Structures are given as C-alpha cells and as structure tokens.
Please model this.
Amino acid sequence: MASASFDPAKLYIRNVGISNGLSQCVVSDLHQDNNGFLWIATFDGLNRFDGSNIKIFRHDPDDPSSIISSKIFKIISDNNNHLFLSTSDGICYFDCKTEKIFKPSFLKKYTPVWFGKSNSEQDYWLYTKDKLLVKVSSQTMVCKEYLSLTNLNQSNLNVIKVLENGTSLYIVLENGDIVVYDDQTKLSKIIKSSTLNWVRFTDATFDKYQNVIITSKSTDLLLFDTKLLTFLKSDFYDKNKMLIGIEKVIYDSLKDILYMPSYGQGLFVYDYKTNKIKQYKSKGHEFPISSNYILTMRTNKNGSLFIAYDGSGVDVVDPFVKKFKPISSNSDNEYENIKYVRKIVEGRENDLFIGTSESGLVKYNRMTGQFTFYSKVNNFNDAYSFVLEMQAYDNELWVGYNGKGIGVFDINTMNPIRKITQGHASNQLSGGTIWFIFKENEHTMWIGTNGNGINKLNLDNYQIKQYSDNQYIDFVENGVRVIMKYRDDKLMLGTEKGVFLFDKKSENITKIFPKSEKENSFKNIKKHFSRL
Model:
C-alpha cells in the first residue's frame, strides 16, 4: 500500500492575527513575493509580514501615492517588486520599494478588470473592460494583445483564471465556461459548462493530468478534460461526501497531492498515490488549522503553506520548523518518572542522556521509546540523583553532580570508569557541585564549580590543579556557569557575578564585564570568530 505524501507531523503551524499586528482578521487574499515578504490583503488595508513584524498600508485621502482603497479583494506580485491589487475602487499598482502606487503607461489604453499570473516569471495577464486578453511584461510594462472575447463572452462575464499549457490557453469565465485558444493557429472556441445561471466560480487550476478543476463555494467542482475538450463528472465526491464549499484547488507536483481549502469544512487533501481524500479541521489533533472557514490558500516552492481565514487571520505552515515532541515517562513507579531536567546530551545511535535533579541520570532511546533510569541501575544511589552537568566526549559520558563531584561512564555500556570527588588531594576537585565541564583538548579538562572556583584536570594522569575561592577573591560566593577558550592563552568564564578572563600563563583573573560593581549572571557564551 502506498504511503501518504502529506505528513502533518512534519509541519509547524503558526497563526498570524490581530495580536501580531494584522490590520484585520478577515483575510481576502495573500501572496509571497520573491523577497520572502508575505503580503496579506484585508478589508482594512494591505499588510506586509516579514516573519516577525507587520507593516500596514491603507488608503489616505490626503496622500495620492497611497493605495486607492483599503478594501482589497485580490493580490499578486511580479519579479520586479510590484504588487497588483484588486480593490473596491478598482485595480491599482504598488511599488514595494517606494511603498507608493504607480500608474503604468498601458492604463492610457486599457482599463483592466482582472489580472493573473502567467507561466512566465516576468509576465502577467490582464482582462480589460473591452474584453481583451492582454499579456504585460512586468519589466517594461509593454503589452501584447492575445485575444478579444467580444464574440465569445456576450454575457459580460469576468475572467477568473488563465491557464497555459504549451501553445494552448484555457480562459476560465466566472460561470464555469472555458474559452480555449491556440496561440499558434490563433483559433478559439468556447466550451459551455451547462451550470445554473446564478452559479459563480472562484478559481481554477490544472490537476496532475493537465485537466482543469474549477471551484465554487456554492456548487460542486467542475472537471474539464483538456484533451476531449469536454466537462466530466469529478469522482472526488465519491471519495468524501463532505467536500463542499471548495474555494480553491492547488496541485503540488512535488508531493503529488491536491490541496482543496473549503469555506466551512476546513482543508481537504487528495493524495494521488493513495487515491484518498483526507479532511483536516479546526481543533483537530493531527493538523490543527485555526478555522474551518478558509477564504484562500497559497504555497511556495519551499513547501510552505499560507492559509487565509474568514475571521482567524493567516496560518503560516512551515515544513522546516521542527515540532517539539514531548518525552515523558508516565510510570506508576515514582522512581521511574522524569523530574526536573537539567541537561540533555546525545549518546550513540538513538540514545539521549537526560540529567535531572530528582530522577538522576536517564537514558532514552528515540527508536524504541524505552527509558533506563540509572538512579536504580549500576548502583546509582539517592546521593547521586541530582545531576547538574553532563558532557559526552568520545566513548565517555561525564556527569557532574550537586555536591558529589563527577562520575565518568562508558557511554555504550554505562559501566562506571571513575569518580572524581571534592577534597584537597592532588586528584580531587576544589568543589563538589559541578556547574560546567569543558574539554579544551585531549590532554586538558576544565571544571567550573559553584562557589569553589575552577579546576584544571590533566587527562594523562588525572592530576588536578585547583584555582579556588581561597586563592581568588573573584571566586568567593561566585559560581562558574560556563567556560570557553577565548585565545590560546586565555579562558573566558561566565559566572554569577559577570564575565572574566583567566590567563593560563600568569594564572591571573580579570573581570571584563560589567565594569561596574553590578552583578550579572551568565549561563552561556558564544564566540564570534570575526571579532575575537
């Protein structure tokens, strides 16, 4: 059996609404330009979303360069930083660089009533008040007249889509009729859809087989066979009886699926491999979209989805943002539950080691989902159940405890290799509460403690040199949370009282931030190599 191509588990949904700065929660259309900006059309202005912030453009009666109306129905962009807006006061053209409208020269000759994308990245289609289909270059704004629909469209119906396949054009009218035009022979004909006069269609697209699917909120889908030049009955309703109110259809050739957003029934996805339609609704566990009332939807080349709602803003669906999967042990045995996670490191293959402050050291296998609690295994007693720090080096797992020093284990077998405790001997640490472990090289390890300074561990003979609070006043009542190599001769220490430099040759310590007496706690430091 073929596996489904649409996998919601790999998709991250983020809703963008009024709380994010959107001018209105009813989104009539949206489009992502080549710069990555998401342009969102509402009945209260044009919104530009950069992933973090929203900028709103509205009609200003005192500014002739502002958009002609804040009530926007449709939006597309070209490759030259232009937007084309269909508004309540007509069509206007917006320059994304200047953030002002402009008037192309072709407006002296044509009055557009509809516009749409062309297969060419540089061109778009216009349908004019005089029933002319015109292709416009977005670079030069030069127009080429393709076809007059005066004799073919006697009912004054608007165009809703122009689809291109080779030399053939399929011009879809709002009542479902299709004008077929061959650009090579210059011949055209109209194919009637035989739908009721009051029915209006909203969008059209090619399916996998280059047949035309036409959508309507008020009636069934239409399927037009481009080889037979006839309308056929779609079998989609036999696959899912809830398939009603379809606003738009998008074919994703990479996933081999059809997206069919609806007004009232959520999102339908038809998978050509499985020949099944799956429905996704608001508050669903598998793919929880924000609303069942979808007005339109867009995709981009990266596989992201943008879903516009009647009252719920926009869902940005990203396949590259990874979801968090909770890892928890729900055992009835209180000693086999994960409590207070302090550190996580990766082991071999599928193992994760989880250090906790109550459950000790826990190993989790991501493949099997099995937990192993080392507070009970390998003679880990209660005194060692408080893990503060962990690092994995080669085949060893170094575990720093709260008050009990360090335990070193074979990362494959978890057999103990050695213990390093607190004391005054040459192989002991200045403090037993371990906050940081840093392996500088194959010969040297540095250990930061809470209140007892730092320690230099010789990995060849396991002798330790202590730099404690007895020697350095800066370590008194101060914990070392992070250690990193600053230069060959210096370490940088992030502590509870600020950032310090430790000179390994002179063994002097210098505070570099903050310069005042104010104390700042630092838990992490990142190095910017171009600046250090």
In short: The chain is about 0% helix and 45% strand.
